[in-house]
Amino acid sequence: MSRVEKVVFLTLILISATLSGCLSSDNDSSGDDSDEIPPEEEFEGADYVECMIHEELERCWNVLVPSTVNLSNEVPMIIDLHGNTLTMENQRALSEFDDIAEENGVIAVWPQGFENSWNAGYCCSAAGELGLNDTGLILEIVDRVALNHSVDEDRIYLTGWSNGCALSQKLANEHSDRFAAIACMSYYLLDDPVSEYSPIPIMEIHGLVDQIILYSNDAIHLPNIEAQEHGAIQNLMMWADMNGCQGDTPNSNSPSVFYSIQSFTDCETGSEVSLVTLYAADHNPYEESYDPEGPLIFIGNGGTVDTNGIAWEFLSRFSKSDTEGTL
Predict the structure, then answer these.
(1) HEC profile for 64-117?
(2) Is 234 helix (H, G, I), strand (E, B) or coil?
(3) Helix/strand/coil for 10
């Protein structure tokens, strides 16, 4: 759809919504959308929440269009998925991808999971227990944001923490045609590879002393022998196999004082697969601390590692226009 068609379509939506009175200024609207969406000429610098009914549930997401975005051009978009028990507001404050968006002229989106959770596979969430179609939800959010804004659909990226990282990898596995690359924190792919998967760049960032999703295996959440084969290194090797990477071990090793990056760089369609190991980080790999109500406090790395910067540096190197048709 051209930019002119997008403007016309959005204008019709706003006029129709205003006449019908279906929009509300707060987030508990029973309608399909939120009137936080600004008119097209005010999109630069916009920061709003939009909601819709998706499979009989109201679902919402926060969109940031930084003032640094030039809407006369198509720009990248990054989807940042919160962890289990967090909200979209918690994730935004913790990951600070709003700073990445401002600094780089990127549209950022923080979706809200059902009961603060995502259906990302076998592990530990209300959304998973109900079998919610969260991959379908994220795809619809992507479509709606791309309709309202000048999004470069060759540069749509995924990131997220924990449960949100698992959903990022599930989306990459099942819908590799829609995303240019993913770089997420502290969890693994919880499903088998699908036959439709086409290699895209994958990065997983993990704390060596993660006490929730263990670096060595996932025995806490998968109490059987297979759990011993499901840790950060095994996840790296699984994606390397899925991406048709050459070699039995990573061909690139970039050590530093507080972390290292092991990568397969010779992979199909120009893709790569990387594992970032944070030597002293627990389940929270970000710079900021997260202190929820309860016994656990995730202290963050205190600024020793620019985790979201590492993720963005990886993501921003890739575009689907550079890899389509490459074998």
Answers:
(1) EECCCCCCCCCEEEEEEECCCCCCHHHHHHHHCHHHHHHHHCCEEEEECCECCE
(2) helix
(3) helix
CA distances from 169 to 13, 158, 240, 297 (A): 33, 9, 13, 26
Around Cβ 207, how many Cβ atoms within 10 Å? Answer: 28
How far apart, in Å, are the Cα atoms of 306 and each of 185, 215, 312? 13, 20, 10
The C-alpha atoms of residue 201 and residue 192 are separated, in whole angstroms, by: 18
Taking Cα atoms as reference points, which of 299, 206, 66 lies closest to residue 218? 206
Residue 215 tokens read as 């670096």
Measure the CA–CA gap between 162 and 172, rounded to whole angstroms.
15
d(CA 172, CA 183): 10
Above 90 in pLDDT, residue 93? yes
**Of 307 and 1, the one with more pLDDT:** 307
Please compute Rg for the chain using Cα positions.
19
pLDDT in the model for residue 297: 78
pLDDT at 158 over 60: yes
Question: Given the DSSP bridges, would you call strands 259-264 and 273-278 parallel, antiparallel or unpaired?
Answer: antiparallel
CA distance linking residue 266 with residue 263, whole number of Å: 9
**CA nearest neighbour of 205 among 160, 250, 254:** 160
